[in-house]
Automatic annotation (TrEMBL):
Gene3D superfamilies: 3.40.1190.20. It comes from Parnassius mnemosyne (clouded apollo). PROSITE patterns: ADPK. This is ADP-dependent glucokinase. GO terms for molecular function: ADP-specific glucokinase activity; metal ion binding. One of its GO terms (cellular component) is endoplasmic reticulum. Keywords: Cytoplasm, Glycolysis, Kinase, Magnesium, Metal-binding, Transferase.
Amino acid sequence: MASYVDLELLKHLTTKVLPYVDSVGMNEQELSNLNSVLERGRVVVVADSNPRIATALDQMRNTFRLIRQKNKKFGSKRKLTRMHVHTLAYQAILTVQNLKWKRTPAAAAKASLTAHRYVCNTQNINLEKTKLLLDDSFSTTTDNDNSSRVFFEANKPVACWEETIESDKVEICVAPVLICTEAQLTAGAGDNISAAGLVLQVEI
């Protein structure tokens, strides 16, 4: 949808489109705005361009709940069962378990590699033109009563775990992005990143 800052567009999106989809993909600023419109009916004036993983995950959980409520309110035959948020530093994919979505860890990894390859405009990963913004671990929520931390492992760089959101068991996977330090392409990056993650989850 290109930009999630037009309030009128977002309000139409929340009533005409989102109640009838089973998968959504967006960047961190779009997530922040969509979450705000669903919860408070207004867009965020300034959105964090590099949010902590815990902050983005909390927004994903809340947005998931709010869109599921829209599914029910509008009597939709579809339910939101997949969310993909792509940021400069990481990819995060949430899927409801035991449904059609496959290979969530691989999807997060492919989206991460696509982010680098598309922006650097090359199929090869040149480590001299990359940087990581993430530490080796992160909190899964900003909730002070929950001290859960997840660690990245060298031989398993995509971190995945299971949760329950209301009555749904979900899998969440987070993959760090090898950020391209010499950008060649930026327009269309989000579309390519979202598609790269989606295609692995719907392929037979």
